[in-house]
Write a structure and sequence with these properties.
about 130 residues, single chain, 4-stranded antiparallel beta sheet, 7-stranded mixed beta sheet, about 50% strand
Length: about 130
């Protein structure tokens, strides 16, 4: 089991920045690729960004490329999402998730953007961007 706890959400004006954190506990953090997803009312959960098991590969949704940066610090068991140039359409509950795929870990492949491929989820943190 892996427990994930997000923090860092809040309210910000358009153009501002926030940094989300996701602290993991339980099994070895390095065994998991980590992803960030978001969900706003009436919409399906959508992929935001992901980072591979050893951090060599990252993947971003087109809507956040150039504005968001995902990173991980295994010594802290934490994954971060730096969000810059925020827009009102970024308003959502942001979730972090862990993917324990063994083959992926061996290859340190590009992480998945598909929610069902993630094994563990946090409770989410609200991000609100006002115009």
């Amino acid at each position: 089991q892996v427990q994930l706890v997000e923090s860092g959400g809040g309210w910000v004006q358009a153009g501002g920045s926030l940094r989300l954190s996701c602290a993991a506990s339980g099994r070895a953090f390095s065994n998991y690729a980590m992803g960030w997803f978001r969900q706003s009312p009436g919409k399906e959960r959508e992929f935001v960004a992901a980072i591979s098991w050893r951090g060599s590969n990252t993947k971003y949704a087109d809507s956040v490329k150039g504005r968001f940066t995902i990173s991980r610090v295994d010594a802290e068991n934490t994954v971060y999402l730096q969000m810059n140039s925020l827009k009102p359409e970024d308003t959502a509950v942001y979730y972090c998730a862990a993917d324990g795929n063994v083959a992926g870990r061996v290859l340190d492949r590009i992480p998945s953007g598909i929610p069902v491929e993630y094994d563990y989820w946090g409770q989410g943190t609200q991000v609100t961007v006002s115009s």
